[in-house]
Every structure is written in C-alpha cells, then in structure tokens.
Amino acid sequence: MNPDADTPEPVLLIIADISGYTRYMTANAKTLGHSQTIITELVKAIIRQIELPMEVAKLEGDAVFLFCRKPADPQPGRELKNHWR
C-alpha cells in the first residue's frame, strides 16, 4: 500500500473554452453541420498545442479540461511558474 495515496497532490487545472460557443451555434443553426465542423477543428487545434506534462482530462462540447501535476522535487532557483512547464 502506498502511504502517500491519500495525500493531496498539487495540480494545475486549466479549462480552455471557446468563447461565444452557444451564441455561434444558435446563430448558425441552419448550417449546424458546418458550425460543428468548425468547432471541432478549433478544439483539435487546442489539443495539438498541448505539451507535456499537460494532459487532457476531458473534452466537453467546446471546452478542453487539462491538468498538470506539480513536480515533487522542484529545482532550486526557478520561479514557481516555470515548474508547471
């Protein structure tokens, strides 16, 4: 049994959301198939830009939910924001 299994783990959570999605879809309801294709391509573009150690947790409509575990042993002298890369 891992003694650290119940210990909270620091993570970074990001939700990449396409702004105006609902308005766009309703405004283009007559061409819904075309609208959905465009949204799908935008989500794929977001996913292509993801770099390790970021991971996709879930895709939901127009949003990509990402997470990254904070390194357990950060290198001294680096700023916190650089630890998430």
What does this 3D model show about the protein?
The protein is α+β, with helices and mostly antiparallel strands and 85 residues long. The chain has one domain. The chain is built from three helices and three strands, in the order βααββα. A three-stranded antiparallel sheet has the order 1-3-2, covered by helices on one side. A hairpin with a 2-residue loop joins strand 2 and strand 3. The model has no long low-confidence stretch (mean pLDDT 78).
Tags for this entry?
single chain; 85 residues; alpha+beta; three-stranded antiparallel sheet; 3 helices; 33% helix
Brief summary:
By secondary structure, this protein is α+β, with helices and mostly antiparallel strands. The protein is 33% helix and 24% strand. The longest helix is centred in the middle third of the chain and has 17 residues, at 32-48.
In terms of topology, how is this protein built?
Blueprint: E1 11-17, H1 21-27, H2 32-48, E2 55-60, E3 63-69, H3 80-83
Antiparallel strand pairs: 1-3, 2-3
Helix pairs in contact: 1-2
Main sheet characteristics: 3 strands, antiparallel
Q: What's the tally of helices?
A: 3
Approximately what portion of the residues adopt beta-strand conformation? Answer: 15-25%
Runs with pLDDT <50, length 5+?
A: none
Gap between N and C termini, in Å?
30 Å
